[in-house]
């Protein structure tokens, strides 16, 4: 396993992280036993960074990880948790709450579900428009002092918010979507993080499977939120799958899979970037681990850039209502 430093003040982490969201129904049904086996396989391979959100499956994801870690030494897993999203009993999304009292309440439940006494990296999932980010970060800083949290991270916020948060307490990383077809962070967010010594944990490196090389138009079944994602919609999906075919030709010449090429591209953008892969099965995890063997030369990167130029994808990365709540996108659009 290769390792990277998570920001200037953060822990040493595996150069690949496991995003566990898909194990709790966001992409349709998943197999509990296979999910746990996949977490164990990741740990055995040296992937210690496990990423979750307390709202994935309304707590299901944390309980699943807690079950998987029951007999695992606590220091073998580095747990990253997002909080703040409000859900209804029907699974609906009701907004965000990042008030200081809510922060402490969310963490109390998270510790119980995971069966641990501290969280390695704790982060608000989104910016709460009703709460100054300084108040939210200050509340997490109190939890750091009390020993319940080790490090503070951010998620999906723009450059100005990053600066305001970092002025309150050291921030180890920003979790944000970054892939060959989602490169918005390159404009101002990534330079700001680099200036402040903040790492990037990149999710969506395969654009929710779209550029995995495995997805086709028959892949999204019941309960799969990709059915509502603009990039998977009719009119966009054919254009985007044509980009995947261009990547497939490059991958074939290098004797690697499309997914391995796409993960390796993200990893090649800087030592301060840790890709998160959302493998729900051991075979997909093994494929992702193979990305470490992929060496991309300057010529390879130029070829990939020509095949999939910046802004080549059709459709936004989220539906319009969700895009409107992303501080990272609002900052770009003004």
UniProtKB/TrEMBL annotation:
Keywords from the named record: Oxidoreductase
Pfam families per UniProt: Aldo_ket_red
InterPro entries for the chain: Aldo-Keto_reductase, NAD(P)_OxRdtase_dom_sf, NADP_OxRdtase_dom
GO cellular component term, pick one: cytoplasm
SUPFAM superfamilies xref list: NAD(P)-linked oxidoreductase
GO-annotated molecular function: oxidoreductase activity
NADP-dependent oxidoreductase domain span: 16-307
Source organism, top-level taxon: Bacteria
PANTHER family assigned to the protein according to its UniProt record, in alphabetical order: AFLATOXIN B1 ALDEHYDE REDUCTASE, ALDO-KETO REDUCTASE YAKC [NADP(+)]
UniProt protein name: Aldo/keto reductase
Organism: Dyella japonica A8
């Amino acid at each position: 396993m290769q390792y990277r430093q998570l920001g200037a003040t953060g822990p040493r982490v595996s150069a690949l992280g496991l995003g566990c969201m898909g194990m709790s129904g966001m992409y349709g049904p998943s197999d509990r036993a296979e999910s746990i086996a996949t977490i164990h396989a990741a740990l055995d391979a040296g992937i210690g960074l496990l990423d979750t959100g307390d709202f994935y499956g309304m707590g299901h994801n944390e309980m699943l990880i807690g079950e998987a870690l029951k007999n695992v030494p606590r220091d073998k897993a580095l747990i990253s948790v997002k909080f703040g999203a409000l859900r209804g009993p029907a699974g609906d999304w009701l907004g965000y709450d990042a008030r200081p009292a809510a922060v402490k309440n969310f963490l109390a439940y998270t510790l119980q579900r995971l069966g641990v006494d501290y969280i390695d990296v704790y982060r608000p999932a989104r910016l709460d428009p009703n709460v100054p980010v300084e108040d939210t970060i200050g509340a997490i800083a109190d939890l750091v002092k009390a020993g319940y949290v080790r490090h503070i991270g951010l998620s999906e916020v723009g450059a100005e918010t990053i600066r305001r948060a970092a002025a309150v307490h050291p921030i180890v990383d920003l979790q944000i979507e970054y892939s060959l077809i989602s490169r918005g962070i390159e404009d101002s967010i990534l330079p700001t993080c680099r200036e402040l010594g903040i790492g990037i944990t990149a999710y969506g490196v395969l654009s929710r499977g779209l550029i995995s090389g495995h997805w086709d138009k028959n892949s999204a079944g019941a309960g799969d939120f990709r059915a509502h994602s603009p990039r998977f919609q009719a009119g966009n999906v054919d254009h985007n799958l044509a980009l995947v075919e261009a990547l497939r030709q490059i991958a074939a010449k290098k004797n690697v899979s499309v997914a391995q090429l796409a993960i390796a591209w993200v990893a090649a953008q800087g030592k301060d970037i840790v890709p998160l892969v959302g493998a729900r099965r051991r075979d997909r995890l093994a494929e992702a681990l193979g990305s470490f063997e992929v060496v991309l030369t300057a010529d390879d990167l130029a070829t990939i850039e020509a095949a999939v130029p910046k802004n080549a994808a059709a459709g936004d990365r989220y539906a319009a209502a969700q895009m409107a709540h992303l501080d990272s996108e609002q900052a770009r659009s003004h």
